[in-house]
Structures are given as C-alpha cells and as structure tokens.
Amino acid sequence: MPHPSMHWDKIIIRAGPYQTPRMHAMTLLQTDKKTTGTSIQRLATGVPGLDALLSGGLPKQTITLVSGPPGSGKSILCYQFIYQGIAEGHKCLYLTLDKKIEGLLVQAAELGLNFQSAIDSGQAKFLFLNINKKLIYETMVNEILSGKYDRIVLDSITPLSEMPIYINNPEFSSDLSNVDPEELTSGNFPVRRLHLHYIMNALETSGCTAIITSELPAGSNHMSRDGLSEFLADGVIVLSLDPTMDRRKLAVLKMRSTKHTLKPQDMQIDKGGIRLQ
Q1: How many CB atoms lie within 10 A of CB 90?
Q2: pTM attached to this predicted model
Q3: Exposed, middle or buried by CB within 10 Å (0-12, 13-18, 19+), for 20?
Q4: Closest among 153, 149, 160, 143 to 123, alpha carbons compared
Q5: 3-state helix vs strand vs coil in the chain, percent to 5
Q6: Prior bond to 156 cis, omega within 30?
Q7: In CATH, what number does 7-31+41-276 get?
Q8: CA separation (Å) from 227 to 29, 67, 235?
C-alpha cells in the first residue's frame, strides 16, 4: 500500500502499469523548510577534509547531488557518508540501482568499511531497486517515507530519470498541453522533471539528509547526466578524473547556506575511502 502521506497516479512506464507518487503542488514550492532560526545543523560526511570545506558538513535535511564520470568515487563517497552516520548512531538507508547488494558490500569492505553488523542490527538497510520491476517507485518511496531514516543515499538517480513515462491523469493535461508527444517518450526534460520532482519530494518529505548520485559524461556542460538534478538539489559536489596526470579532484559547486570555495581539491582513494589532500 502507498504511504498515507502520498497520492498515486497510474502511469505506464515501458511495457506495463507502474505507479508513481504525486505530491501536492505546494510541496514542490517548499524549498526552504529545513532549518529554523539562524542555526544550521550539519552532518559530518565521513570524508577527511571535506567537512572543513563545508563549515562542518552537509546542512541537515538537505539533498546533495554527487556527480562524476565512471570510476571517480561517487559510490565510495556514499559509503563513507553512511558509515559516518552509523558511527554517530543514525539510521541509514542505501538505495542502489546500479549494483547488487552483495557486490556493493564487498567493495566497501575492501576499503575497510564493514556494514554487516549495522545491517544485522537494523541500523542500516541496503536495498537494490530493479529498474525492470513493476512498482519500483512505490517500493522506493514507501521505504524512504516509512523507515524514519536520518541519512539516505540514492545511487544512482540516472536510471530513474531516464525512464519513459506516459501520464494518464487530467490534472496534468494543462501542464503538458504544449508538449510534443514524441518529446514525452524520448526522455527529454518534461519527462525527467516529473521523475526528479517525485524523487526529490519523497526525500524532502522524509526529513532525512540525502545524497543522490548521477553519471556525468565526459565533456558535459551540465553537473548531472539529466541536466536538471543540479537545480533541484540543495548542494552539488562534482568528482573528476585526469588520467594523463593520474589525478582525481573534488569540487563543491553549490551548497545551501554554506560559504565554500569553488576551487577543485586534490583527492585520493585509499584504505578508508576518499580523503582530500
């Protein structure tokens, strides 16, 4: 059953009937509901050197996009974020669409990040979302909203943002009246925006602090593969590779309520994960 705080619209994604959550329109406009007063609470990232760039960590109850090409360390940064949360007693959720859980845990363990005890105790949950299964949105959103998680990772948002969508709801007809039907099925911006709004709103409604990842093709002028996530997220961290110089870099390009440098920082990946130099 859908979570009671959500509404559901029947849509057709690919070959069969799926369900996608629909938030109230006002929810989409509530972008500054996460802090009270003048004090900004922050959560440590678990990445040595990164919290110093962020005045202490990620602002609480925000969504940060981490993007980069394959092999840049996106998932590793997510492991460290969850591992730090476990160390602080937070309840954590790791949603993955690209990796099976067994392989993910093995990779993390090779870095010295062992999650098994936290999984066994119920403090952390790792959930694989199969993009080819029905009700993938219902499964994902119900878990996000029902689990009372402090930290959530969605790795990655790219497969979800690229799923075709056919809307069968008159409430949306006025919004989509000027959209070419071919554009709706091609994965272009109107479709992607709907997917991303559903996902972002579920994360915001849960009250968690979240990291989402996105692929970033080489030479792209955007900060994500979909070209929209960077506008909807509260923060953007971009990871990059320079194979010629055998060098990796991390840049904080956006972070709500945080004064930070835009200068790319040298980073290394070794035992324990990413660390800034």
Answers
A1: 18
A2: 0.80
A3: buried
A4: 149
A5: 30, 25, 40
A6: yes
A7: 3.40.50.300
A8: 20, 11, 14
Per-residue pLDDT of the chain (277 residues; tens, 9 = 90+): 555 444 434 333 333 334 444 433 333 333 344 444 468 999 999 999 999 999 999 999 999 999 999 999 999 999 999 999 999 999 999 999 988 899 999 999 999 999 999 999 999 999 999 988 878 888 999 999 998 999 999 998 887 877 765 444 444 444 444 444 455 444 444 677 787 888 999 999 999 999 999 988 777 777 777 777 888 899 999 999 999 899 999 999 999 999 999 999 999 999 999 999 9
CB 158 within 8 A of CB 215: yes
**For the chain, what are the domain ranges?**
7-31+41-276
Residue 177, φ and ψ in degrees, nearest 5: -65, -25
Q: Which two tokens stand for residue 18?
A: 């799926």
188 alpha carbon, distance to own chain's centre = 20
